Amino acid sequence: MADVIRDPEAIKANITHLTYARTDLDPVAIDPIALERQCPLDNGRHEGVDISDLSLIPGLGTLDSLPPELFRFVLDELDIQSLTDFRSVNRRARLEVDTLPPYHAVATHAPSLLRAVLSVQVAPKFSCQSLYDALCSPNCVYCGWFGTFVYLLLCSRVCSLCLVQPPINEPLEPIRAQDMYGLNSKALDALTKLHTIPGSYSPMQQLEQKRLRLVDMGSARESGIALHGSSSDMVEYARRKRESALPKPTTTTACRPCLRSCLTADANLYCYMTVIRTPWLDRHKGTLEWGYSCQACHRIVDPYRRVDLKDRGRMYCGEDYLEHFARCKRAQEALASLSQPDR
C-alpha cells in the first residue's frame, strides 16, 4: 500500500476513480445555455472565407495608414465593448479583432465568458487581456485553490467556497453601497455596475425575475475610504448621514445593523448572479480543465470535522490534487483498495 500511495503515476492513472466532476455547480450561476440564446456570437461563422487577398476586403479608412504594430497595440488597449463595436464595422475589422491572440483564445475556449461580460454590461470596464488572464489563471484570488468561477465585477477567479464567504465577495445594490460607505454621486458613478440576468441561481435555485444593478463591496469600500480619507472617518460620516435622514425615532429606515441584516439575506443570491463557471486554459498545453473534487471527502457525513468538510467542497486541477492526496487518508485507502487484485 505504501508504494502505491506514494507513486504519482498511480494516482494520476486512477484520478477518475478518486475524484468527481462538479456538475452540481453548473446550474447555480449565470446559465451559459441561456447566454448562448440571448447573446449569440458570430465568431467562427465566417471561417473558410477567402481572405488571402486583403485588397478584396473593405479597408478601415485612415486606420490603414497606421503601422501594423501600432494598430495592434491600439486594439490591445481597447475594452471588450469597444472591440465588439469595432468588430462589427466590416469584414476587415472582424478579421483584425479575431486574430488578436487573447481575443481568439477567449472566443474559442470560453465563449460564455465573452457573452457574460457583454450581457451584464461590464464589457466597457475590462480589456480582452483581462479576460484572457482570468481564463489562464486557475487559482482563486482569495484562497489560492482552484477557482471554478469568474467574478464578473472584478474579472477574477473565485472558488465555490470563497464565493459565499462574506465579506470576501459580497455584491450589493448601489443605494446600499452609498449608505454604508457615504459615497457621493461622483464616487458611486465611478464604480463598475453589473446588470444581472433574470433566472434561477444558487444551489436552492432561487428565481430572480428582476434585472438588478450590483456593485462590488470591496470596491465601494475603497472608494469610500479614498473619498473621506480614512476608514474611521468614512464610518462616522455614513453614520451621521443616516441619522440625519431619520425624521423621527419610529421611522423604519434601516440603521447599520438592520441594513447589514438585510444585506446578508440577499448576499448569497447576489454572489451567484455575478459569476459564471469558466474552465481553466493551460496556455502551455493548450488544454481546458473544469476542475474536480475528492471522492473520499465527498462521502464525509460527520458535521463536526470542519477541516474535512472544507475539503469536501474544494476543487483541484493539474498537480493540486497530489498535494491534497498526500494528507487525505480516505483517498489513500481508496487508491490502495483499487490497486488490490480482485479475489
Structure description:
- A 3-stranded antiparallel beta sheet has the order 3-2-8. A two-stranded antiparallel sheet has the order 1-11.
- It has 343 residues and is mainly alpha-helical.
- A hairpin with a 4-residue loop joins strand 2 (149-151) and strand 3 (156-158).
- Helices cover 47% and strands 9% of the residues.
- The radius of gyration is 24 Å and the shape is globular.
The number of helices is: 19
Instruction: State the end-to-end distance.
Output: 17 Å
Count of strand segments: 11
Strand content: 5-15%
Uncertain runs: 251-265
Largest sheet: 3 strands, antiparallel
Structural class: mainly alpha
Large-scale geometry: globular
Rg calc: 24 Å
Q: Strands of the largest sheet, in order across it?
A: 3-2-8
Mean pLDDT: 84
> What is the chain-wise order of helices and strands?
HHHEHHHHHHHEEHHEEEEHHHEEEEHHHH
Q: What is the multimeric organization of the chains shown?
A: single chain
- The residue fraction in helices comes out at 40-55%
